[in-house]
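User: Predict the structure for this protein chain, please.
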Amino acid sequence: MLDADVPLDELKDAYRQWRETKGANVEQVLDLFDDQVEMHSVLEPDVPHELARVQRSREDARNYFKALLDDWEMIDFPTEKMVADGDTVVWIGRCHWRNRHDGSELDTPKVDVWTFRNGKAVRFFEMFDSLGFARAARLL
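Assistant: Here is the predicted structure, written as structure tokens:
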């Protein structure tokens, strides 16, 4: 059973707006985060790219989204399903991005795992095709 303070409707709306605005709703997404959110990627922290770094605050997350949107153009971000139980929401979908520097593209399945406390996200973990990302980011 979903915890009463998990803002599921707001999260669904944030994903809808993320797709429709091509990422222009960063503030709406950040409003879901606690000040001390811990944000992880499937990328190992030693990968030489800004998006691989562990974010430890809402301000760090803001910088993450800035780096993402400065370097990548969103093509699509469809939701397939959301599953919620207890303090956890799992978003399942795809993301399709174009590298703004060289036009390379990444189109991959994506899974986001959110953990909420007192109505705010305290942990976020995203999974996607890390090899495809490394290729599109020209890390290989």
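The mean pLDDT is 97.
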